[in-house]
Amino acid sequence: MSRHCQVTGAVPGFGRNVPWSKKKTSRRFDVNVQTKRYWVPSLGRNVKLRVSARGIKVIDARGIDAVVADLIAKGRKF
Length: 78
Hints:
By secondary structure, the chain is of the alpha+beta class. The protein has helices spanning about 55-60, 65-75, and strands at about 15, 25-30, 35-40, 45-50. The protein has 2 helices and 4 strands, in the order E-E-E-E-H-H. It comes from Arachnia rubra.
C-alpha cells in the first residue's frame, strides 16, 4: 500500500537529489500519512482512515460526518 491520503488524495512526489558534484539521483517526497481512528456518529461506529497532516486539518474544519459522507459518495470503503 502506497503512502496515500484517503481524504485529500495526496500522493508521493518525485524529484532529484542534486549534490555539489551535480550527480543527480532520484528521490521521493513521501506524504506524512498517519493511521487515525475516528468515531462517526452517523454510522454509529469507529472508522480507521489513513490521512495526511492536511487531511487531519480538513477533518477538524469540516467535521468527520461531512468527510465520511463525501468518501461514501465517491464509493470508497473503510
